[in-house]
Amino acid sequence: MEDRENTQGFQAKVFPLYLRPMQKHPFIWETHGIHVGTGDDHVAHGIDDLDRIVEQAVGIGFPSVTFIIHSPRLTRFRYASERATDVKFIRGDASYFAYADTMAGLRKRHVGRIDIRFGVELEWLGTGLGMQWSRAKLFQAHGADFVVSSLHFSPDGVPYDGSSEDTAGLIRRRGGVEQFWAAYFDEMIEMVDASWQFTSVVGHLDLPKLYAPLPSCLTPDNGGDTETERRLSTLLEMIAERNLVLDVNLSGLRKGVGIYPHPEILSRAYTLGISVAIGTDTHDPADLGRDYAAGLEAVRAAGYRYYVSFSRGIPEKRSLSHGLEGQFAVLNLGMEILNNRIPRERRLEIPRLSFGGDFGALAKVFPESSSLGSFHAIRVRNEERSVTISDRLPDYSGGETSYLFSHHRDLPGTLAILLNTLASEEINIETVWLNSLEDGTATAYLTLDGRIESVREAVEFVMGTASDRFLRIDPAVKVHLPPVKRALSYLLEVDGVWLPIPVSRHMIITVHANRPGVLLVLLSALASRGINVVDLQLGARGEKGFAALGVEGDERDVADLLTRLGPSYLEASQIVLGGLK
Ligand SMILES: [Fe+2]
User: Fold this and answer.
1) What's the CA-to-centroid distance between 121 and ligand 1, angstroms?
2) Which one of 29, 240, 245, 329 is most buried, counting C-beta atoms within 10 A?
3) Which CATH number, 2.60.120.10, 3.20.20.140, 3.30.70.2860, 3.40.50.2000, labels domain 2-319?
4) How far does residue 161's CA lie from ligand 1's centre (Å)?
5) Where does CATH 3.20.20.140 sit in the chain?
6) pTM for the complete prediction?
7) Does pLDDT of 17 surpass 50?
8) 401-576 sits in which CATH class?
9) How far is the CA of 150 from the centre of ligand 1 (A)?
10) pLDDT tens digits, residue range 255-293?
11) Chain segment 414-452, per-residue pLDDT in tens
12) What whole-number distance in Å separates Cα of residue 279 and Cα of residue 248?
């Protein structure tokens, strides 16, 4: 295995870097992580006692723990040990079916202790039936944070990572090492081309190096124009164009062949702008987090300044060094909010970023970003949409203004009653500043466009008909707005419109016609399903109105009613922040 020695030679060169004094623990946000076991399946694989792994990760002080499960395979695709049994649906159809529920239970049992992520390693079984099978399997892993697409088998069902005999047989049948790799890269190209819309990460890109010599394009004496070289370039370019993420897989280190992919592939990926995710790909509790520092170092050595992890299919950026985690956390909330506003198939696109104030430190990590000057905030942009987020609420300098003030019980539908009555008098609501208080009541400050006599009539009507809900309504008070309630982060702007609101786990953002009654549709719809509005901000720019809401209620109800608000709503996005516990 001469070429394997080449790989190890490279490792020997960079290995001293790995031996730098380790931080107390590396910051683990892995993707291709801990393989979930097959339970009672006859061919055991992976880890079954997941609570123990979580305890272990909490004990070490990891911020997160990430599980992954293989999708079951068609019977034709089997390892030698599996061929010796009669087991169908290799690797635990039952455990796969139960996976989403298992993960939900695990999250519930460990809520508030550690961030639990989970994904699927989709076994690529070719187009045709294999493709339909894969699609079907993904439906069964609903709610997964990511899908890694992996090619473990040749089209005739022989594994690339089975044994040296299996690999030697494939090399012989294909007529040599170069032809072997060329065919493998072709299968990878087919996998990326056919599956990119429902996957997010390309798994262990050069897996066959486990038992095969490297292709000439990855050896130092590479002459340049070879068949494998052209196919590898095509593969990497396709990954880049489709915004897929590359799996930097540490299991190769444990097996003596170096990280997947080879450093040369990693540096080419960097040049092409391909994002990377890091994973231990472990099947043994003893390997939890093993070699993670080496993964971070390899990524850094290739030129990367950050790596990614996934939450509900959305890539989050992760720091490669200690000290910036807090700023990355704010950035990821902004990324998650923006991504919830754009269609699923565009969520792997890399948004543009602007940093201001203390967040300016992130500009070093993202040199292509622009500046917000001394404004302490992060703006995340994708085409016509943007959100501005900060961990600090800037001082409000709006001065004294006249507002309709309401102090009321914080119950679903209360605000809708007020808005309904104002709409009946044909009064438009220009801005709303709603704050839920700790004592089960809420205050609202509204600026209105309508005659003050009509406002007074509306207020009298509300106090006369719903006095059980409203403690006080004043049609015109002159005040400075109070600060919004304290939170870890604040959404400050939507598409550049000032709309300060605490970031909470469940939110709604709408862009709508700035006309009387439009907001009433949304609030009535929410009230009809018992969904409580806990925070609300309205803003406007010309003909467009903007609303940001913090809500409490059933996600499916919200999703359903947001599709039925009518043509006055240009956008109605439900924001569920998986990264915010
Ligand atoms: Fe794999």
Assistant:
1) 7
2) 29
3) 3.20.20.140
4) 9
5) 2-319
6) 0.81
7) no
8) alpha beta
9) 6
10) 999 999 999 999 999 999 999 999 999 988 888 989 999
11) 888 998 899 888 888 877 888 888 899 999 998 888 888
12) 6
